[in-house]
Amino acid sequence: MARRFILKRDEALARPTLTLDYAAALNPQQYAAATVGGGPVLVVAGAGTGKTRTLVYRVAYLVETGTPPERITLLTFTRRAAREMLGRASALLDGRCERVQGGTFHAFCAATLRRHAAQIGYAPNFTILDASDSADVIDVLRTARGLHQSSRRFPRKGTLQSLFSAVRNRGGDLAGTIAERAPQFTEHLDELEALFADYAAYKRQRGLMDYDDLLLLTIVLFKTHPEVERLVASTMQHVLVDEYQDTNPAQALLVACFASVHHNVMVVGDDAQSIYRFRGADVGNILQFPTRFENAQVLKLEENYRSTQPVLDLANHLLSRAARRYDKHLFTSKKGGDRPALVAAPDDRTEARFVAQAILQLREENIALDRMAVLFRSAFNSYELEVELSRRGIPFVKYGGMKLAEAAHIKDVLAHLKVAENPQDAPAWNRILQLLPGVGPKTAQGIIGWITTADGEPFVLPENPRFGRIAGGLKRLFEVLRAIQPDQTPLVKQVETVLAYYEPLCKEKYFEDFPKRLQDLEHFVGIAEGYPSRAAFLQSLALDPIELTALGAEPQDEDEPPLVLSTIHSAKGLEFDTVFVIQALDGVLPSGYALKDPEEIEEELRLLYVAITRAEQNLFISYPLLRYSRYQGDQLTAPSRFIDGIPDAVLEPMQLVEESAPPLPQPTKSLSPPPRALPPDRRVQDQRDRDASANLPF
DNA sequence: TTTCCCAAGCTTTTT
DNA sequence: GCTTGGGAAA
Q1: Which nucleotide's C1' atom has the smallest distance to the CA of A378?
Q2: Which residue intervals of A207-340 are DSSP H helices?
Q3: Is the shortest CB-to-strand distance from A127 to strand B under 7 Å?
Q4: Residue A692 confidence (pLDDT)
Q5: Is residue A192 a contact partner of residue A159, using CB atoms and an 8 Å limit?
Q6: If you average pLDDT over residues A303-314, what whole number do you get?
Q7: Residue A15: what pLDDT?
Q8: Is the CB of residue A387 inside 7 Å of nucleic acid strand C?
Q9: Is the pLDDT confidence value at A695 over 60?
Q10: What value does the mean pLDDT take over residues A235-263?
Q11: Residues 74-113 of chain A in contact with strand B via CB under 7 angstroms
Q12: CA of A154 to C1' of B4 (A)
C-alpha cells in the first residue's frame, strides 16, 4: 500500500459547533453510529430500528463536522431512497446536504463509465439495456446462429438472459450456473457458450451495456486503470452504503474500491432482511465485512421504534423458524397494541372484500389511506383487490410489477430517442424498423447491417433500389430522426416529434386498446418535461424505472393521498401504520419456484419477515381457502407454511362472517327490475373459533 | 419475407 | 391471460 499522509483538519473545523443535538435526537446506539469517527464501520440494524434516521443524521454530522458534502457518497438501493434521505438531511441541516452524491450503484457506475468510456474502449454515448432489451439482443443472436430451430428444445430469450446475467453477477462460469439452475439445458452447453460470447462481443461492438456490465466494466476500468480508481476513490472521503445485505459480490468489490483511499466506509444492513439472492445478492457480504475491511467496527441498532410488541413477537417467532440462526431479537419499549390477525377467507374475492372494508373502517378511525399498505409476493397477486378498490372508489398506487418503460408502446417511442442518441444501437433500430409496414426481422437486419457500418452522416438514406418497397416509410422515419438528432432540441419537442410520427403506427398496431396507450404516451411527455436532456432522460429511465401502475392511479380523489399496494420487494425500507399481507399461501409465499431449494425457501421466509416488520400498529395476514386457477378452475389451497401452526397467542385467527341478508322485499306486480343488487354490508367479526373458520360454508 | 392465425407453454421478486 | 413459436397464406 502507498504511504499515507494524513492532512490535519482546518483549525476552524477542529472544534465545530454542532447545530444539531445528536445525543437528544438519537438513542445511544444510533448516536454512536451517527457520530463514529472514520474507518470501516458495519452497522447491523434490525428492522425498524431507525436505520434511515441514523443515516440521515450521519450525513448531517459529517457535513457539520467539515466534510465537503460533494465528498460524501451515499449508495442506496433505489434512487427514491437516496432522494428521500438527502431530502431529510437537508431539512435537518441545510441545503448543503443536497450536494451529497447519492444514488444506486448502477447509476454511479454509469456516470463513472461515461466519463472514462474511452479507457475501456467504449464511446461515452453507450446505451443501457434493460433486461428485456438484453433478451431481445440475445434473441437476434440466437436466430442468427439458427439455434431457434434446433430439434431439441433450446431455452427462450428470457431464460437465456437471466442465465447469462446470473453467471456474471455471481462471478461463476456458464457451465456451473447451468448445472445448478437449469440442468435440462446441459446438452446445449456448447451452443450456449458460443451465444454467450456472441452476446458479449455484440454489446461491445454496438456500444451497449446491460446492468451487469455497468458494475463489472467499472471494476475492469478500475483494475486496468488504477489511476482512475485512485481519482474516484480520492473524491470519496466518506462512503455510506444502505441495504448492504442486498449487494452482490461485484458491488462489495466496488465498495472496497471506493474506500481504497480514505477507508471511511460505513455499510448498514440487516442479514435477516436479505431478499435479493435471486439477483445475485450475497448475504456473505455483510457477514464478512469485518474480515474484508481491517479494523472494522461493528455497531448494532437493536431497539425497534416502529412496531408494537405483538408485531415484533410475530417477527421474532418467524425468524426463530429459520434454519440459519439470526442473531436478532427485536424489542420495543412501546406498550400495547393488538395481536396480528390471521384471516382465512373462503376465496380471493372475499379476501379482497375483507381488505377493502377493513381499510374503509380504519380510515373512519382516522388512519390516513397512505398510512396503510397491502403487500404481496408478486405483482399479480393484487388483481382481485384492485378491482374491488376501484369499485369502491378507494384511490391507490401500486409499486412493483410492470414498469412504464416496459410497456411496448413506450419502448417504441424510447427506441427512437435511443437511436438518435446512439446510432449504433441495433436493438433500438430493430424495434423502430419493424414498426414500418412491410418490414420484418429479415429486412430490418439488412438495413441495420447497412446503417451501423455506414460511415459519415447518420440518418441519411442513400438511393438504394433495394428499399423501393418501403422507401416511403423509411424516408419519414429518417426525417424524424434527423429532426431530433441534435440533443440541443428541447427534450419535450423531441418526444412530441416522435409521437406525431408514432401515434398513427401505434393505432395500427394496437387498435383495440389504443386509447389507453395514447394516455400513457401523453403522460410520457409530461415525464420528459422534468429532464434537461435526452441523455439524462434515457439514463434515468433505464436506471430508475417509473412504475406504470403508479401512474394509472385514479386521480379521482386528488386531495387524498392514496393507499399503497406494493410487492414486498418494493416495500423494502418503508413503514406503515397498518399492513395487510395478502395471499399468504404455500406456492405463493413461499413461491412455488422456491420450493426445491431450502436456501430459497429461507429467502421467502425473510421476505415475509420484511413484510410484517413494515407494520407499526396493525397487521393482518390473509389468504383464500379456494383459489381460481386458470387451467384447473377452483383449487384448494394451503396456507403458507410459514404461518401454519403459529400459536394463537402470537397470531390471532380472525373469522369473516357475512352479515345476514335483509329480508327480501315482497314481490310486487310491476316488472320493474329489482334494485341494483349492491352486495350486502359485511362486518369483520373477531372470533376465536379457529376450526370453524377453516371450513366456512358461507 | 411478411403477416396472420393458432397452439403451446409458462407465469417471481429488480437495478 | 399473455407471450412465444410454428406453420401457412399472401
Answers
A1: B12
A2: 211-224, 226-234, 249-258, 284-287, 289-292, 309-320
A3: no
A4: 31
A5: no
A6: 94
A7: 58
A8: no
A9: no
A10: 95
A11: 77-78, 104-107
A12: 25
Q: Is the CB of A469 under 7 A from strand C?
A: no
Would you place residue A73 in the very low, low, confident or very high pLDDT band (cuts 50, 70, 90)? very high
Residue whose Cα is closest to the C1' of C1: A630
- Taking residues A181-197, report their average pLDDT: 83
Q: Which residues in range 186-215 of chain A are in contact with strand C, contact meaning CB within 7 A of any of its atoms?
A: none
d(CA A432, CA A411): 9
- Which of residues 568 to 607 on A have a Cβ less than 7 angstroms from any strand B atom? 569-570, 591, 593-594
Q: Please, is A409 exposed, middle or buried when counting C-beta atoms within 10 Å of its C-beta (0-12, 13-18, 19+)?
A: buried
Residue A159 has pLDDT above 90, yes or no: no
A698 vs A498, which has greater pLDDT?
A: A498
Question: CB of residue A408 closer than 7 A to nucleic acid strand C?
Answer: yes
Nucleotide nearest to A445 (CA to C1'): B1
Distance measured from the CA of protein residue A633 to the C1' of nucleotide B8, in angstroms: 19
> Checking DSSP bridges between strand A615-629 and strand A238-241, what pairing results, if any?
unpaired
Instruction: Write the pLDDT tens digit of every residue in A115-125.
Output: 999 999 999 99
- In tens, the pLDDT along A626-679 reads 876 655 556 678 899 999 889 999 999 998 888 877 776 665 544 443 333 333
Alpha-carbon span A18 to A14, nearest angstrom? 12
Residue A487 CA, nucleotide B1 C1', distance (Å): 36
| pLDDT at res. A466 | 63
Strand ordering across the sheet containing A238-241:
A101-104, A72-76, A238-241, A265-269, A41-45, A297-301
User: From the CA of A135, how many Å to the C1' of C9?
Assistant: 30
Query: Which percentage of chain A shows pLDDT scores above 70?
Result: 88
Measured CA A152 to C1' C5 distance, in angstroms: 14
* CA torsion angle A95 A96 A101 A103 (round to 10): -20
Residue A585, SS3 per DSSP? strand
The Cα A10–Cα A7 span in angstroms is 9
Give, in Å, how far the C1' of B6 lies from the CA of A258. Answer: 55
Cβ of A46: how many Cβ atoms within 10 Å? 27
Task: List Cβ neighbours of A343 (8 Å cut-off, separation of 6 or more).
Answer: A351, A354, A620, A621, A622, A623, A653, A654, A656
Chain A residues 453-492 with Cβ under 7 Å of strand B are: none
Which amino acid, one-letter code, is at A206?
R
Q: Which nucleotides of B are covered by protein (CB under 7 A)?
A: 1-3, 10-15
Q: Which three cell numbers stand for residue A114?
A: 461515461
Cell representation of residue A661 = 341478508
